[in-house]
Amino acid sequence: MFKELHTMSCHKKSYITTPIYYVNDIAHIGHAYTTIIADTLARYSRMSGLDTFFLTGTDEHGQKIEEAAKARGKSTQAYADEISATFKNLWDDFDISYDKFIRTTDADHMKGVQKAFSIMHENGDIYKDTYKGHYCISCETFFPAIQLVDDEFCPECGKSTTIVEEESYFFKLSKYEDRLLKYYEEHPNFILPKSKRNEVIRFVEGGLQDLSITRTSFDWGVKLPEEMDDPKHVMYVWLDALMNYVTALGYGTDEANMDYWPARVQLIGKDILRFHAIYWPAFLMSLDLPLPTHIAAHGWWTRDGEKMSKSKGNVVNPREVANAYGLDNFRYFMLREVPFGGDGDFSQKALIDRINSDLGNDLGNLLNRLIGMSGKYFNGTVDSAHVSKYYQAELDEVHAALDTLEPLLFDMQIHRYLEELWRPLTVANKAIDMYQPWTLMKEGREEEAMALNGLIAAILAKVSIMLSPVMPEVCKKISNALHFTIDNASWNSMVKDTKLLETFTLEKIDPLFPRIEEPLLEQAEPVDVKEKEKAPKKEAPKEEKKEEGIALIGIDQFFQTSLKVGTVVKAEEVPKSKKLLLLQVDIGEDAPRQVVAGIKEWYSAEDMLNTQVCVVANLKPAKLMGLKSEGMLLAAKDENGLCMIRPEKPKTSGTPIG
Questions:
Q1: Spans of biased composition, class Basic and acidic residues (predicted)?
Q2: Burial of 543 (0-12, 13-18, 19+ CB in 10 A)
């Protein structure tokens, strides 16, 4: 499988992009997560011999930037320069291997956007009209009144919208509705993960409205092409921003690198999925450009189970984490901890556990064992001449595991990539315990003991090659100790062609992952829940108490809760429990959620099967009677008993409630 997959892509170009980050604030852990994933894909692509172009950058136009600059008493360009530099400096410090850092204020970018506008207009896809609607400055998005909360608030961020009425140019998005649906059907892996694909399809099936793509109420943006003779208009931020992926390659100017298009993977956060999976492909269709292979949308990060916010003081600064725990350790944790597409939770405890267990015990300790054995028995020499004679079964198991890796990486199952990459390490550690080199030496079986050392060295070399896109510096230390270089030649030789290391003398190096006993950063919140309970509770100010006894919350707090329609696809009683039912609930994800519900006194398993329920989908998993529960059902209870809250009419599983 490994050889077949790579042969198909051999000698081709590989183009990897991050979103361009909006310069309304400095980089946070979510930005770092996206960029580290993209860097990993780019590093692997280069190592495997592909001509690779990796793009990142900043999005600097729009009303929100203009207002942020004014609030700080700076010119808009100066403010954009300042924030853009913080992103670029962080990626440089993180040794992100980008080939171009684009800014939407770059002259070549603006020329390319103007060319795209002209072509779309010539193709009959752009027309002028008047737009009146609710506009959210924070999201840079118009929303129909029916989508608003309480007739005013943005359904995405919860902030107040503004009614805007102005002349605008529109893109005929509705024209591409059927063509988009057909493309999604014919290219099932275009949107990853597949649960996000279903979300996009449902949205498009609901009908697309033409898209306002210019504004006249502010100046900070790309002007229309001169031939339009309409200087009061600037292009709407999403048309401007999305075009960066091709203007970075020279579209509209020199076209120098357009042979890298279409992109292999375009990485985004799930909050901008609609723009990239609907608007962007429609723009490309209008321009008669091919679509990217994958649009891959990842989830959000919380900290210790709570949403991050400046007011709570719990925002994770990626630079601080990398400085405290090591950049490669941070990279490994981010990519291993959470399945791509799901939301992740950052905690120092989880990070420390990954460093001490996965990295320290499994990888670092294996290298220490090899250095110790080879030094004690063979003066540090490692010879692989007889590895196949004694340990072919172990080699076969290792190579079988390595064969599965590349597809996982580019299907965005990166946590699985790392999980499977650890299988060879398990083989190596088990081999030492099973064959016991100290016993082999006592029995005079030196050739067999040397072959065992050769096996361990080969496994470490192969793992370090495949791990190097995730942990480049750590793997460079391992390869230096084993006297080889990680590059396309070693990838071809040891991974693709399954060869072993030549005879060499091991270098002694310091332990790669010293054990960490205590958190290295100041905690944002007390970690010990019992200590929290002991702490004196502050009484709420009397003036905030309401006669009704209801604690009021803000719209931002409300939107932290994710409510979805679910369909119960399996239901059974929990043995020895008078209250609990064990349910499998489809909420539109790749697999049903397991929910343990205390409703057995009012509903039997048969009552619940194939019915629809309302699910709180973003609760932290909990355990009830040893069973994992991944959500909570909404119900109402009074003196007459309990009843489930259900949709009035059947709805598609996963439909948001709000």
A1: 527-546
A2: exposed
The tokens describing 266, both together, are 């375009």
Backbone angles phi, psi at 29, to 5 degrees: -65, -30
Q: How many other CB atoms are there within 10 angstroms of residue 290's CB atom?
A: 11
Could you give the C-alpha distances from 139 to 27, 156, 197, 385, 559, in angstroms and in order? 18, 8, 22, 62, 15
* 75 C-beta neighbours (distance < 10 Å), count: 11
Question: Is the same domain home to 364 and 438?
Answer: yes
Secondary structure of residue 467 in the 3-state scheme: helix
589 phi and psi angles, rounded to 5 deg: -95, 180
**DSSP 8-state code for residue 98:** -
pLDDT tens readout for residues 163-172: 878 899 999 9
Assess contact for 270 and 196: CB atoms under 8 A. yes
- Give every CB contact of residue 383 below 8 A, 6+ residues apart in sequence: 450, 453, 454, 503
- Which range scores top for mean pLDDT: 17-26, 266-275, 588-597? 266-275
| Average of per-residue pLDDT across 76-85 | 92
Helices marked H in 338-413 — which ranges? 348-354, 365-378, 387-403, 405-410
Summarize the chain as % helix, strand, coil (round to 5).
Answer: 45, 20, 35
Within a domain: residue 466? yes
State how far Cα 382 lies from the chain centre.
40
Give the structural domain span for 639: 561-657
Enter the pTM of the model.
0.77
Mean pLDDT of all residues belonging to the chain: 89
Q: Would you state the structure tokens that stand for residue 202, as one six-digit string?
A: 């449902």
Please name the residue that has the structure tokens 């990166």: 414
Report pLDDT for 548: 34
The one-letter amino acid at 81? D
Contacts of residues 434-437 at CB distance under 8 Å and 24 or more positions apart, as own/partner, are 437/373, 437/377
547 pLDDT exceeds 50? no
**Residues β-bridged to residue 162:** 135
| Contact call for residues 17 and 268 (beta carbons, < 8 A) | no
157 is in an annotated binding site: yes
User: Which of 505, 523, 551 is the last residue in one of the domains?
Assistant: 505
Q: In this structure, what token pair is assigned to residue 86?
A: 């913080």
- Asked whether residue 136 is marked as a ligand-binding residue, the answer is yes
pLDDT in tens, 38-54: 999 999 999 999 999 99
**Roughly how many angstroms between the first and final C-alpha of the chain, as a whole number?**
45
Q: What is the CATH number of the domain that holds 625?
A: 2.40.50.140
Q: Scanning the structure block, which residue is given the tokens 């050392």? A: 453
The annotation status of 614 as a binding-site residue, yes or no, is: no
- Taken in order 537, 542, 548, 553, the sign of the CA dihedral is negative
- Consult the annotation and say whether 154 binds a ligand: yes
**Angstrom distance (rounded) from CA 476 to CA 483:** 10
* Mode of pairing for the β-strands spanning 162-171 and 641-644: unpaired
Based on the structure, what is the number of domains in the chain?
2
CATH number at residue 500: 1.10.730.10
CB atoms under 10 Å from CB of 127, counted, come to 12
* Amino acid in the structure at residue 384: S
Helices (H), 258-364: 273-274, 280-286, 318-325, 327-337, 348-354
